[in-house]
Write a structure and sequence with these properties.
Elements: E1 2-8, H1 13-22, E2 29-35, E3 42-44, E4 47-49, E5 52-61, H2 66-77, E6 88-94
Helix pairs in contact: 1-2
């Protein structure tokens, strides 16, 4: 099992969640966050905005589903054909164990 975390533009959140659901990935945790990337925020004149609003989508999936999830996120998180700075990052990490709280059952 793996944990996939996608940090994306907030305006892309709903379409990505809808497309993930259409692809069979219904369970996700979504958090509104702020942050900055390699460009260290955005500068307009003398003003620097270094806390840019983003959305964090987290989902636990089986290892074999990683490519399907990546494809959905890549296809719908990009700005335009080639993408742009600030479109986000996807972080993939292994999960050692996962349990359902109500039942105590291990696994997805």
């Amino acid at each position: 099992m793996i944990l996939m975390r996608a940090i994306i533009r907030p305006d892309k959140k709903e379409v990505i969640l809808d497309e993930l659901s259409k692809a069979g990935f219904h369970a996700a945790t979504v958090v509104d966050v702020v942050g900055r990337g390699k460009q260290k925020g955005i500068t307009f004149g003398d003003v620097v905005y270094d806390e840019i609003p983003k959305s964090l989508i987290m989902l636990a999936v089986n290892d074999g589903d990683k490519e399907k999830v990546l494809e959905v996120i890549f296809r719908h998180a990009k700005t335009g054909e080639t993408g742009a700075f600030g479109d986000g990052k996807i972080i993939v990490s292994p999960i050692d164990e996962i349990y359902t709280v109500s039942s105590g059952v291990a696994g997805l």
